[in-house]
């Protein structure tokens, strides 16, 4: 397994890197036998340290967790605890989906755009209804079942996930509703 441990504007010592590899490796070995790589990013926000971890699993799913604390080791421990809880919670579902899936999740390329925010200039109509494109990137859309898409969205902590439905071969969307339930758009 590959680890990428970095700090944003802070120095990460060798002792912390060894601690992260050991502890995160223990958590991952306990619940998911085949992680491919993990990215751990430490940063400082005011008086707190923040630890963000993203683990890519061989099944194509991503698990993400974030921890805050006044000390850097405590921030990592909080993050590792959340990762442990997530993977424990979804252990059965991960295993069931992995048994049904003989090959890794297939991804399809798509264009992703960032649009400029419309600035209201005293209630005047904009000159054009065409949005201004600020950035254009390549993104990947996974081919998943609806259950896998919901699980992927929850593991990643994302509010929405666009995916290609394996059964119907069309693009679908799952999202977290304001009432806490999950919405599914199937055109």
UniProtKB/TrEMBL annotation:
Gene3D superfamilies: Ribosome hibernation promotion factor-like, Sigma 54 modulation/S30EA ribosomal protein, C-terminal domain. Residues 130-183 form the Sigma 54 modulation/S30EA ribosomal protein C-terminal domain. It is found in: Cytoplasm. GO terms for molecular function: ribosomal small subunit binding. Interacts with 100S ribosomes. Belongs to the HPF/YfiA ribosome-associated protein family. Long HPF subfamily. This is Ribosome hibernation promoting factor. It comes from Maliponia aquimaris. The gene is yvyD.
